[in-house]
Amino acid sequence: MIALNETSKFASVSPDLEKRRISGGMEVFLHHFYEYKKGLRNLVLHTCYRDIGYGIICKLEHHNIEYLIYPLGKKRINVFFGNTDCLEIVRRIGKLCLSRYTAEEDFILGIMLGYDRCQQCERYLRLKQTRNEKRVINHNNESKKIPASTQAVSQPVAQGLKGG
Predict the structure, then answer these.
(1) Arch. (CATH architecture) of 1-100
(2) Which residues form a coiled coil (predicted)?
């Protein structure tokens, strides 16, 4: 777990603006918390500034809700909270940075977070295409990456099979 500081690290911001920022961050968290408690979500990902992390942890621990906290740069954190099994999957993926998730991991996380399934399917296909992560499974059930040059050659062959 990362260390959280109860005091603000934004000394250059006026106290009034700082209060509104903290209040707004907690307001969004409380909305996520409400959705989780009502059963609308099994897993929540809340991104916030580190300085409100302490209040979030207190609320989650008071209600015996499990959570994971991952750093997001120097000033922010990602707080996952909710169902134990969902959190265990996030923990086992073991990547602190969401941008390092594979297309499959990203898809699983999106579904667990309750995102629209069709949009997750579109996102998955887009990530696979842009990251060039196409794979083939051979007869021994082993997965291998296909180089981009091979993919381009394979497409006309596959189209020829469809046409007869």
Answers:
(1) 2-Layer Sandwich (3.30)
(2) none
The alpha helices in 38-147, defined as continuous H runs, are 53-62, 84-93, 103-112, 117-131
CB 115: neighbour CB atoms within 10 A? 13
Which single residue is written with the structure tokens 């990902």?
Answer: 45
For the chain, the domains span 1-100
**HSE-up (13 A, CA, CB side) for residue 146:** 15
Q: By the 8 A CB rule, do 68 and 80 touch?
A: yes
One pLDDT digit (tens) per residue for the chain, 164 residues: 444 544 444 445 555 555 555 566 799 999 999 999 999 999 999 999 999 999 999 999 999 999 999 999 999 999 999 999 999 999 999 999 999 999 999 999 999 999 999 999 999 999 999 987 555 556 666 666 555 444 433 333 334 434 44
> Residues with Cβ < 8 Å from 53, sequence gap 6 or more?
4, 69, 77, 79
